[in-house]
Amino acid sequence: MLTTRTNRLDPSLIPEAQLAELAKVFAVPDHVALIDEHGNRTHIPEALFSHFARIVRLMSERKAIVMMPEDEAFTTQAAANYLGMSRQFFVNLLEQGELPFHRVGTHRRVTFKDLLDYEKKRDRKRRESMDRLTDQVIKADLYFPDPESAQDS
To answer: Which of 38, 96, 121, 129 sits at a 20 to 30 Å CA gap from 146?
Structure first.
């Protein structure tokens, strides 16, 4: 299990002028390449470039970055905090089979990837529910009610 101390990129560790220079370099797509000590040049793939650019931009805004592998294991309390719910509600979700988990001794652990998957699924269900509700309101002509019918009441 990684600790925050080992996977946290703190902007205070890099001089502000150097961060500003990096931000300028990463502002131009396809402009950045790595050059080794022998002069061999390697271009950074777009997928990595966009992540590096975002990291540099956020750090130049004095924001710390925490990097986490998808298989990082969360405690039930940390997972509940991430999802914005109580620990007991989260444990109930685990027991109902809503998220996979494993045990370390008697303690439940959930991977970050499974938290992200659950979060996406939950958000998709919420959007679909809101879309259905919006459709019902529109069909009932309550979204933009006729001002004249409101005067009749």
So the answer is: 129
CA distances in angstroms from 151 to 15, 141, 144, listed in the order given: 66, 15, 14
- Residue 104's beta-bridge partner residues? 107
CA distance 137 to 145: 10
Beta strands 8-9 and 33-35, pairing class = unpaired
CA distance 149 to 153: 7
Distance, in Å, from the CA atom of 137 to the CA atom of 83, rounded to the nearest integer, reads 29
Range of the domain at 36: 8-66
pLDDT, tens digit, for every residue of 66-81?
888 999 999 999 999 9
Q: What is the residue whose two structure tokens read 């390449």?
A: 33
- Residues 21 and 79 reside in one and the same domain: no
Q: Does residue 82 sit in the same domain as residue 53?
A: no
The one-letter code for the residue type at 65 is I
In this structure, are 48 and 106 located in the same domain? no
Q: Taking the model in full, what pTM does it have?
A: 0.66
Rounded average pLDDT over 91-111: 97
